[in-house]
Amino acid sequence: MQSSKLGPTGHAQERARELSTASLELLNRHTLVIASNRGPVEFQIDETGAITHRRGTGGVVTAISALSRYSDPIWIASAMTEGDRERARIAAERGETVISPEGSPFRLRFVTPEPEAYDGYYNRISNPLLWFLQHYLWDTPRTPDIDQHVWQAWTDGYVRVNEQFADEIIAVADASPRPPLILLQDYHLYLVAGLIRQRRPDLILQHFVHIPWPDPDYWQLLPRRMRQEICESMLANDIVGFQTPSHSRSFMNTCAANLAEAELDYRTGTIAYHGHATRVRDYPISIDTEAVRQTAATEDARRHAQRLADFRNEFTIMRVDRAEPSKNIVRGFLAYDRFLERYPAFLGRINFLAFLVPSRLEVAEYIDYLDDINTVVGRINTKYANVAERDGIAWQPIYLFIGDDYPRALAAMTQYDVLLVNAMYDGMNLVAKEGALLNERDGVIVLSEGAGAYQQLGAHAVTVSPTDIEGTAEAIYTALTMPKPDRAARAARLRDIVIEQDIFRWIYSQLEDLSALAKTP
What we know:
This protein is α/β, with parallel strands linked by helices. It has helices at residues 10-15, 21-29, 59-71, 82-94, 115-134, 148-175, 192-199, 216-219, 224-234, 245-258, 289-296, 299-308, 329-342, 364-383, 406-413, 430-438, 454-457, 469-481, 484-500, 503-519; strands at 2-4, 31-36, 41-45, 51-55, 74-78, 107-111, 180-185, 204-208, 239-242, 263-265, 270-273, 276-282, 315-323, 350-358, 389-390, 393-394, 398-402, 418-421, 444-448, 462-464. Helices cover 47% and strands 19% of the residues. Helix 5 (115-134) packs across helix 6 and helix 6 (148-175) crosses helix 7 (192-199).
């Protein structure tokens, strides 16, 4: 027996009415196929042995939900849990071509690699090799070492799992009564488009990359064969999408550096390669503003807001992040320490609340970075332990909240005076957008130039360079002492931008480009 834990999708379906006529015609003519490592539904086996399921989180799930009443999408994903694998096994046993979970707008197909292949694909190549490369995180004198084990993970893991995704997509295409429109997602699937194009040159393929795309010199950390295979496959797509114009330019430059026969037109954002034209575009992803507001207004979030009031001070700085090196958390705390040194008038009057979600703890660098965070916080709190009191108790300048609690994080963001977003490199950084939407105190965002969100929000935030500790300390002071009218004007403009350019704008922009492409002779 299969039970459902899926919530309503009414809001997303209402927003689908805003689709243009051209996009609706596109969806009527094509079967929408989405492929990503993680699917929109996760299956679990409960204590009774029953298979349950719950809807996944994230902007892509929300955006595609908005299209489900028109497109009846098929989503292809890796079987990541034992429940996923068991449900895939049952589907194969029953001869089901797709899995249709109760209450879900999605039809699913699972790719089920052997555990060793999946480990190579996910834990050795996708994470950490490609992720670290694309976030400029390698300590290049020491890492990475591309040895025989990495090459084996590439050949027997990454290549093999990408081949399985291509097989599943082609199986859907061959069985579909309407031509499929294939949307590939992120860095796990860079080789899929090339594999599909060899066998089905007629299909429309788009690939959206959610993380940064570094400059071509940094790609040289990968062996030439690997990076050429990635570039060649990506140019098998009809459209390649990125978060920002700079990521798009870096991709074009990387193709030019690695593929001698690629012909680039920067004016039109087009790359011609072996007789095929690929359009390179940017589509900044965002949030479902109504869903975020609804979550922040739940009883759970309100209870968190009441408890968190005890941790705030006359001035409150916040950050909400995954605890990973690209978020630059340690430098943020060092900048706060420097701020306290330079502006002692704030001692005892300000608290820094950090909400951190442990991430990828199977990767040694992430474990080490979480240790670094705890160490620097402990040192700063000890340094100021006897400096001031608050309500008769020794003042503590930093409070760490470790754990994945989304309602708590949203509740916190309603009450910051400064939101620190000093990421080294981010594809987007949705925390900056959630904070801009929810904050009730005309809070100021201190925003790194390395965050993808900077292209949309930077003009109304206080800008920092991610490695500049002294500059970030000064930015915190600027944000805290900014005149109230300036704070209010900035906060209002940030909120308007997030509302105007939400998650639905992200998917609709892609459909507009795909509909124009589909009409091109």
